[in-house]
Every structure is written in structure tokens, then in C-alpha cells.
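Weekend entry, working from home. Most of the wet-lab plans are on hold until the incubator is repaired, so I used the time to fold the two sequences that have been sitting in the queue since the last round of cloning. Logging both here for the record. First:
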Amino acid sequence: MAMALLNLIRHAERYADKSITYLAPDGKDRAQYIARCATGKAPTLMFPRPPSALLAGRRQEVTGHNSTRPWETLHPLAMKSGLRLDNHVDFQDVSGFEAYLKTLPSGSSVLVAWEHKMMGELARAVDPQGLAPSKYPEHCDSEWREPEYTMGACYDVIWQFVLYRSHSGESWRAKAFSHLHMGFAGKGSKCSEAFEPFSNPSSWPQLIQEGASVVSVTPGMIPACALGFCSLLFLVLGRLHALLPDTQSTRLGGKEPLLESPETYILVC
């Protein structure tokens, strides 16, 4: 069975005045942050392998209500990585979005930037089981306090889908979903949260070998030192447990508890 990874994000910060169709200065800083952190040498939770495809929703209306913000959000990454930035799918064309994904080969790692009001529709195109929320959050709890002109809007959340299909003639369908954060904290901020170097599960043994302190816990037990980042790792381990080969598809859909057996997991504190 073929597999691909889809990261779906909202375009970066805009001005309060919607008639200004390009990114605000903070949005441009976020775009640079994405470019820098997505092209680092170390694998991350957001990109266990380097991005291989970029898509930005296009908005060009007869009424003149246009927007270049999704394109601007990914353009620095396209320039830094050398990847082509596709910008041919209209922001309301869900079928076009699904058709674009269908052209991607197995092993693809795609980053998509869009207008947040349409992200629920995009999610349903690949996620008929409803693993993801129906709407992108209006507000999010991030380390960085958004500027007042954003009126508390959320720009930091990543919707990540693990996609599967049996052959290239089929459309991609989500078998797992994760709600992540970019970790942007203003201009020049270090790569953190889902962009933290070696935050992907396959890199954890390397962290242990390099001397990170560890604590052994059983499923359902998270010690005090494991709060915060460690609780995120525990959640991801649950996702991985659900993706084991002998796991039934209903479990992948999140219909049953992800952690039942008494295996011991390692959390990095």
C-alpha cells in the first residue's frame, strides 16, 4: 500500500484591512521561519523526510477580491528548496485540490497553504472518516502572542494527514490525523514544536544515545516531568501504535482506544 504525508496550513499573518491582499510583516517573518525550519538537515515531526511538493491556493475573483497570501507563505520555502510552487488551484476548488493530490507519487511529503475558511472542506476531501475537525480553529494556544491587528486569529496550527492508497488510480485517503503547532515565536525564533529537530519518532533513539534523560512509563501513566513536550510524544506514540501492521482499519480511524496493551514506551524529558 502506498503512503504520503500531507501538511495543511493556513496562510501566514495578514493585515486587519482585508483589501491589503499580501502578508503583514509578521506573516513574512513566519514565511521565512517555515522556509528555514523545513529545510534543516535534521528530520522533524512535521517533515520526517524533506518536503517534495508545495501547493498554494489561488484567489483571483472578478470582483477584485484577490489574495496572494498563500503563495507568499510558501514562496520563501520554494526559493530555498528549489521546489516548484504550484498555484493553479482556485481556493474554492476542492475537486481541483483532490485532483492535484492524486498526481503525487507514493512517498510524497506535501505542504499546502490555503485560506482557513476552506480548510475544513479540503480536509473532508481526503478524510471522509472525519478524523480532523470540521473547521480550522479561530484561536490557538501558541507560545507567541499574535499581534493585536490579527484579533487573536490562529496561524500556528498544522493539520497533518498520513495518506494511503492501494494504487495510483485511487485518490489518497487519510488513515491518521495529527493537530500540530509550528512553534513560530516571532522574527528569528528557533525551530520548535513540530519543527523541532529530531522530533520525529524515528529519531528518538538517537536522542537517547546522545544522552537525553528518559523515563519509562506504561500507557495511561504520564509522570510530572512528562507534561508538555513529553505528553505530545506520548500522543504520537499512540498514533504509531495504531499504525502497527496488525492493527485493524477501524482503529486507524480512531474509533477505538489507541493504547490498550501493556507495552512500555520511552518518553524524552
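Second, folded right after the first finished:
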Amino acid sequence: MGACQSGDVQEAGGWNDSPDFTEDNENRRVSVNKKTEEVEAFEPKDKPESDFFEFQAEDAAEDMQQFMAVKPWIGAVKEPDSHPDPDSNPPDETYELEYVYGYRCEDSRQNVFFNPDGNLVYMTACLGVILDKEANTQTFFGGGEVENKSKQVASDKHHHNNDIMCLDVNTSTGRQWAATGQVGKSPSIFVWNTQTGEKKARFKLERNSRAVSAIALSPNAQ
């Protein structure tokens, strides 16, 4: 019966620490054949053969189960057998802004004025509001239909497309003009009529100006 030197080969199923083994054989489980006294790689008899595609199929099935758990309606939604062709044209409907509730005062001050008719002029969201307190009706600067320059981005060519941050009225000379400034990457400033809500002028700030936090009109409304 042969013998092996201590430190060369460990017991069957152990880890090889012999410096005679190459790096490729490091950490490989080995055993000693008692008949031939040769060192052999140790392989369990009942080791199952790996099936790469089988594992892929199992992983895909598990991913699908997780996806269905998050969106369970996917498997229930079915396309009908017959349906009209998609129509990308806008519907033949129009809308009109009638009344707006609310007023911006949490982070803005001195933004309520009277116009020449004694009606209130103030701001909320991206609208300039003219309130007839006797009839309880409103006229607006903004709020109409606008063109979308890109997805979810409305044009600010005619009125504000983001929250108004400040407002001023020429209280010294007639109170007929209001100036408003908005928040945004390229904020706009508008001058509009406090009686009709019609736009008089528009000014565009440089990109990344972030917001117009304060605005004032001179006594001669310039």
C-alpha cells in the first residue's frame, strides 16, 4: 500500500494545498486512488449535470411571475376582435375656463390690487385673475388652449405656462396694466390689461434664470 507525504495531498474530498499543483488546479477537490496511488479529481457520483437552457427557462418563468405580480392586469387585457382604427385627430370639442378657486399667498406677498373698475386683480397657478366681486364672475389672463412644443410642454408665446410668482399693477397711473413673472428654466414676464386680460407685451429671460421672484412697474407703467 502506498503512502503519500504529509502536506502533498489531503484526505478524499479535501482541498489540495500542494505547491506542486498549478494555479489551474488550486482549490480543486481531489482524492487518492488506493490501487494506483494516483491523485484524481474528486467528483460526486450523484452530481447532476447542469443544463444552461433549463436554468434560463426557470429564470424567465420566475421573472414573468414577478412581472405579473406587479401588473396583474396584463394577462387579463385582450385586444378585441374588431375595433375602429385609431384616430389621432383632436375631438370636436372645446372648453372655456369659467371660474378658478385659490390664490397664491404662501410664498408671495403684495400681489392683490384693484383695477380702474374696482375689481380685484390677483394670481393663482399660471393665471392672472380679474374678479368682479359684485357679480362674482372672473376674467382671465391665460387659461386658453396652447400649442405643445414637445411632450407635456406648453408654449408660453401668449401667456404663462408655469406658476406665476409675482404681480404688480401701475397704481400711480390708472391701474390698467399688470406685470407678472413666472417660474421655469426660461421664465417669461407678461404685461396685460387689468380690465380685459389682453396681453400687451412679453419678455423672455435667459435660460436657467429659474424664476422671476419680484417685479415692479414704474409710475408711468414702463
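Plan for Monday: verify the second prediction. The domain at 97-144+155-222 is CATH 2.130.10.10 (Methylamine Dehydrogenase; Chain H).
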